[in-house]
Amino acid sequence: MDRLSFHDQIRNNKIKSLALIIVIFIFFLILGYIISIILDPGFFFIIMIISIVFSISYILISYYNSDKIALASVKAKPASRTQHRKFYHAAEGMSLASGLPMPKLYVMESKQINAFASGRSPEHAVICVTSGCLEKLDKQELEGVIAHEMSHIANFDIRYMTLTAVMIGMISIIAQIFLRSLWFSSTRDKDNKAGAILLLIGILFAILAPIVTQLVSLSISRKREYLADSTAVKFTRYPPGLKKALQKIKDEHTTKEEMHKTPKAVAPLFISDPFKRKISGLFATHPPIDSRISRLGRM
Fold first, then answer.
1. What does residue 115 show for φ and ψ, rounded to 5 degrees?
2. Are 113 and 252 within 8 A, CB to CB?
3. Where are the domains of the chain?
4. Which residues, listed in sequence order, are joined to residue 273 by a DSSP beta bridge?
5. What is the pLDDT of residues 69-123, one digit of tens each?
6. Interhelix angle for 157-181 vs 139-154, to 10°?
7. Residue from 58, 56, 76 nearest 67 by CA
8. Pair 128, 107: CB distance under 8 Å
9. Second label for 156, Cα 20 to 30 Å away, from 36, 94, 95, 171?
10. What per-residue string of b and e applies to 99-133 under the rule 16 or more CB within 10 Å gives b?
């Protein structure tokens, strides 16, 4: 079995994430170009302004309050240095290894093994773990999980996914306004054959673009999880720690009551899907856990 270099994995996943961001931007440009041809340029300019203002305003509010929103949604409480000593020691160790400021630590009540990081920058970062994570993981496994979450902070994943969300939001708003405007406004050359074909292409692209870009966003999310796994190995220099933690996550049996403790909106933040959904391929927010374990085993 070929060995994997975490340096190569980090570089490759960064390149792939950037390429996917460029794909979303290209869809944005194509959609804008098609609509500008079909509609009056002045009307299209108004659509662009509205979409940009709404999308950026909504995302920025969420961005600057992402940590507070996530923590409140799972009813997390600040970790105690005495009660959660193991958590503090692991976080302090990974803070030194990564060179990042010590994040604020929180604990949410859940028997599941899980954790997430949030915050707009390393200086405003938080890490939250479940009580099950602290109870079921040994020192090295917990360090692996904390290193994974510190990796999300180090790689500015919240900022990265915010940029993705802004572009997808603009595409969705532009597409919706365009489709609705067809009922009320006239389009140029709509009566000739070429105009009708162009209009049909515009409608199809406006319907498909938000769907395709959302799928690309999910792909970016999966790449960032792989990237966080690889960066965690860089911090710990011990792949078996995170590998064993993921194996325990895979093997644990969780009740439906435990699953419902986590709002679906924040599920993508966690190290593993808290709902244990059998979603794979294009529609998954996380890579297959077996694939992650296999990669870690080859590092």
1. -165, 160
2. yes
3. 6-66+159-221, 68-157+238-297
4. none
5. 889 989 999 999 999 999 999 999 999 999 999 999 999 999 999 999 998 888 9
6. 50
7. 76
8. yes
9. 171
10. ebeebbbbbbebbbbbbbbbbbebebbbbbbbebb
Class of domain 68-157+238-297: alpha beta
pLDDT in tens, 217-274: 888 889 999 999 999 999 999 999 999 999 999 999 877 777 777 788 788 889 998 8
How is residue 160 written in tokens?
């990265």
- pLDDT score recorded for residue 45: 73
Cα separation, 291 vs 250, in Å, equals 12
Q: Can you tell me the distance from the alpha carbon of 170 to that of 199, in angstroms, rounded to the nearest whole number? A: 20
Sequence-separated contacts (24+) of 14-23 with Cβ below 8 Å: 14/155, 14/227, 16/223, 17/160, 17/220, 17/223, 17/224, 17/227, 20/216, 20/219, 20/220, 20/223, 21/160, 21/163, 21/164, 21/167, 21/220, 23/213, 23/216
Q: What is the pTM of this model?
A: 0.84
Strand pairing report for 126-130 and 77-78: unpaired
C-alpha dihedral, 3 to 288 to 243 to 151, nearest 10°: 90
Residue (of 102, 212, 101, 227) closest to 167 by Cα position: 212
Extract the tokens encoding 256: 């439906």
Position 17, amino acid: S
Catalytic residue numbers read 149
